[in-house]
Design goal:
single chain; mainly alpha
Amino acid sequence: MTPAQLTVAPTRPYDTEGDRDRAAYPRPWPTLAAAGTTVFLWASAFIGIRFAGHDYSPGAMALGRMAAASIALSAFVAVTAGRRRRSVHPAHAAPEDGVPPRGAALRRRGTLGLIALWGVAWFGGYNVALNASEQLVDAGTAALLVAVAPLLVAVAAVLVLGERLTGRLGVGVAIAFAGVALIAASGFTGHADKVGVALALLSALLYAFGVLLQKRLLARVDAVTMTWLGALAGTAALLPFAPTLLAQLMTAPPAASLGVLYLGVFPTAIGFLTWGYVLSRWTAGRTSAATYLSPPVAVLLSWTLLGEVPAPLALLGGALCLTGVVLATRR
């Protein structure tokens, strides 16, 4: 994904699906590639959290992850800003694809504060809740419970953003949610800790809130700037865990520390950049429905890399999730 491909087109909060959608975006492959990248990286995050969670507490892991993400995103922003200044004379600079320049967008009343709120809720609260959940339940269970979030987004997008819930999207979401419920009933490996399940559902609620707020803010500011500033805000909110992180860095094995670094650079920095790109081009309901692919991928990775063998009902639930996402996202 090049910096040019990450340039965000103007978001369309009241878009409907059909011919108008195809006419506005006749070349869907970059968006599909970005969606696939996001799905894989976010699925791998459940495995990384489960792996590093043996040596890092939930708050310390979240801070280490976000510190790495903030450094990576700051470097990316610096490089892209330098290229923009060299290629475009300031006197002739114009907003790209209808998105206001970064400075102008951030000067709008409340924009910077809302970005900070988004970063604290998603990069801060979501990460801590999910990390704590995965110390009580396996990666597959956590991934499938967090998959409740797209259902919440799809419903809220109709009520808040004015998007139209088509019959196909509604049926697809219902089938996928049935798959998630099947897993939550007994757990991915046959056991589900109640506190762990509750923390995973809290993560899903923060996830849904983050998606809806991000969808609104992408009309004002580009995805790169929003992701970067949100990561900085989330990192700042997690600073109280700094003493714990420093202490655990001294005792954790290198593999666990590399796992935290991976979580920051790949699922967070790269994954959220591609996510913002997709969200600005698809409706919130369609984008969130596509993330139903993450749980089955997480199940396969957990089975292969962590040896967490799925129960038969879990495999059936994963199949329902796949069926639902196909129905919900196809044209």
